[in-house]
């Protein structure tokens, strides 16, 4: 399999080198699958271990594994036990999936726990309600402590925008805040809203943010080519460009 971008053909192995392979399902999402004698938590844990086994067996190895904070300690143990700890970056989401609902202190606690248990990157959900009210100071006060906590640990902070609920002006403001706060990446979507990455949003993000961009939400083999072309990607450097996906590389659970 090859993926064409900007007149350069990337192999699926090259694409994998900038992917954060993702498992963010919650236990309550298993309600329709649970049988007598089972629990949603048990089903979710079974799928999580399957996801980890399948990830290390993928023929196209992703750069990162993106999971919930409480999963980091288990993923770190798994990778160490399989002697794969140096093969992947662990990425944890915080304030997920609604950054406005989760207070800053809890986001910080989630980040600190994840960083202490194997994570080297944090994907933080922006407080949409504060942004939409144009309360830039509130958004900055939410983001800055997380940036500081990550950078003190030599870790990366990605700020998730949730572009599906932000208009162009709000997306532009989010880029300016991310730039000011020192976020390392901005990310299109949590993947838990009705709208994922779009061409229009990527154009705006590239214009108004100088550092990394993570394309996330609905990324597939049929659109990743165009997304990378729009961002004028000619080199797949995970320090500059990332893809959040759960099925692009195949063999994923959830």
- Please tell me the total number of domains: 1
Give the CATH class: Alpha Beta
Class inferred from helices and paired strands: alpha/beta
Q: What is the H/E string?
A: EEHEHEHEHEHHEHEHEHE
According to CATH, the homologous superfamily is Aldolase class I
CATH topology grouping: TIM Barrel
What would the principal axes of the Cα set say about the shape? globular
Number of helices: 9
Largest sheet: 8 strands, parallel, barrel
Low-confidence stretches: none
Give a quick rundown of the structure:
The protein is an alpha/beta fold and 254 residues long.
How would you describe the overall organization of this protein?
The chain is built from 9 helices and 10 strands. The two termini are 22 Å apart. The chain is an alpha/beta fold. The model has no long low-confidence stretch (mean pLDDT 93). It is globular and about 50 Å long. It has one domain: Aldolase class I (TIM Barrel, Alpha-Beta Barrel).
Layout of helices and strands, plus pairs?
Elements: E1 2-5, E2 8-11, H1 12-16, E3 19-22, H2 40-57, E4 64-67, H3 69-81, E5 89-94, H4 104-116, E6 119-125, H5 128-132, H6 136-152, E7 156-160, H7 168-181, E8 185-187, H8 199-208, E9 212-216, H9 224-230, E10 241-245
Parallel strand pairs: 3-4, 3-10, 4-5, 5-6, 6-7, 7-8, 8-9, 9-10
Antiparallel strand pairs: 1-2
Helix pairs in contact: 3-4, 4-6, 6-7, 7-8
């Amino acid at each position: 399999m090859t993926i064409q971008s900007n007149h350069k053909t990337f192999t699926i192995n090259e694409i994998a080198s900038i992917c954060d392979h993702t498992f963010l399902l919650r236990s309550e999402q298993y309600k329709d699958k649970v049988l007598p004698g089972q629990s949603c938590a048990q089903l979710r844990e079974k799928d999580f271990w399957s996801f980890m086994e399948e990830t290390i067996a993928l023929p196209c190895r992703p750069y990162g594994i993106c999971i919930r904070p409480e999963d980091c300690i288990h993923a770190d143990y798994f990778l160490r036990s399989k002697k794969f700890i140096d093969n992947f970056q662990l990425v944890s989401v915080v304030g997920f999936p609604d950054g406005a609902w989760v207070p800053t202190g809890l986001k910080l606690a989630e980040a600190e726990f994840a960083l202490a248990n194997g994570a080297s990157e944090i994907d933080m959900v922006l407080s949409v309600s504060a942004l939409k009210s144009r309360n830039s100071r509130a958004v900055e006060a939410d983001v800055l402590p997380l940036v500081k906590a990550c950078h003190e640990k030599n870790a990366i902070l990605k700020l998730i925008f949730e572009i599906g609920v932000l208009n162009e002006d709000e997306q532009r403001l989010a880029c300016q805040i991310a730039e000011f706060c020192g976020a390392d990446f901005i990310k299109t979507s949590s993947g838990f809203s009705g709208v994922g990455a779009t061409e229009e949003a990527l154009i705006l993000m590239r214009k108004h943010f100088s550092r990394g961009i993570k394309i996330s939400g609905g990324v597939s083999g049929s659109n990743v080519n165009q997304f990378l072309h729009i961002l004028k990607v000619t080199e797949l450097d995970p320090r500059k460009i990332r893809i959040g996906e759960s099925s692009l590389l195949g063999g994923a659970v959830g």
